[in-house]
Amino acid sequence: MKKLTRIFFVRHCEAEGNTRGVLQGRTDCDVSGNGAKQLALVSLRLRNEPFSALYTSPLRRAYKTAQAINQYHNLPVRKDARLIEIDMGDWEGRSWEDIEKDNPPMLKIWKEDTGEFVAPGGESVRHVEQRMWEAARAIARANAGRTVCAVSHGCAIRSLLCRALGLPLSRMDEIPWCDNTGISVLE
Questions:
Q1: The domain containing residue 149 runs over which residues?
Q2: Which of 58, 85, 88, 139 is the most exposed place for a label (fewest CB within 10 A)?
Q3: What digits encode the pLDDT tens for the residues 6-16?
């Protein structure tokens, strides 16, 4: 019987941008004080999982989360740029309230047709979904029959879950935002 391949997708710990209520996207924010506490808890939560590989987005908040998880696994931490968060372009560092005030039509697209959304100067959600799917498939192929961990970001993981569940990106709002250090498992 063929062994199941399992990928634990973990959202990064709380970062300074999360505490300020701004869109971080690819802005490389550091871990918040609460995020440091979350690192200790997520490492304990995952200490007994039989991870054979550990992947992470190159952004600091994700990499530090991967390092914390690795405390009990002693694996090479592999950075994979495909796991990075959506590039929110000109919207990075701004709050949703400011964006809604300045650009209601774009925010409406984000809420109603997420797959077609692209922030000014940013990346489309559709592109994020495609690269996350590509990353998940490559990680699964390289680790067939094993359990691995991949640390990524909220929008990136939600877009991947849409694809895995067969949902169009227009229904991405049905996939809830997971909390920082939240875990989603694909088999």
A1: 6-186
A2: 58
A3: 999 999 999 99
